[in-house]
Design a protein that fits this description.
single chain, alpha+beta, three-stranded antiparallel beta sheet
Length: about 160
């Protein structure tokens, strides 16, 4: 199991209550992500489609009792001017992919998330996630216990900046 707080990697910190298997998968996330054409990514547990026709798939074994979501964006993609004016440019794609994943897991439209939280993760968030570079991409992988959709539960499992 990764250390409770891995300060050398500020994008992925695990804390009390984190599922050991999920924490292990997140620590090794790069091994479980593949970039391929859509036609070759059918075996993925979940996928994120890119604007250039590629697909990022999560190929780790499912974790019983947990849901997973991923989102990916090209790191060099132009930043949407209207959203940058509203939320700022600092680590835009990292924050964007994180919010996309968390809104998927919460079953909340991303526009609703923006109105409530901007591109930030609210305090008290119980999801586990990791945001990382992968080739020319920024990718976030996030997990939540099955059945939990609330984004404001008190037992913080993972928090991260970046």
């Amino acid at each position: 199991m990764p250390p409770r707080s891995d300060l050398s990697d500020p994008l992925s910190r695990t804390g009390p209550g984190a599922g050991q298997r999920v924490s292990t998968l997140l620590a090794a996330a790069q091994r479980h992500l593949r970039v391929a054409p859509v036609a070759e990514s059918g075996g993925a547990v979940t996928r994120s489609h890119l604007d250039d026709g590629r697909c990022v798939g999560w190929y780790a074994p499912p974790v019983p009792g947990w849901r997973v979501a991923i989102d990916a964006e090209r790191a060099d993609a132009p930043l949407p001017a209207a959203l940058v004016r509203r939320f700022g440019a600092t680590d835009f794609w990292g924050r964007w992919t994180r919010v996309e994943c968390l809104s998927k897991l919460a079953d909340v439209p991303v526009a609703t998330w923006w109105h409530r939280h901007g591109l930030e993760v609210p305090p008290g968030t119980a999801w586990l996630w990791r945001t990382l570079p992968l080739a020319d991409l920024v990718v976030t992988v996030a997990f939540t216990p099955a059945g939990r959709k609330s984004c404001t539960v008190p037992d913080v499992a993972v928090c991260g900046t970046g």
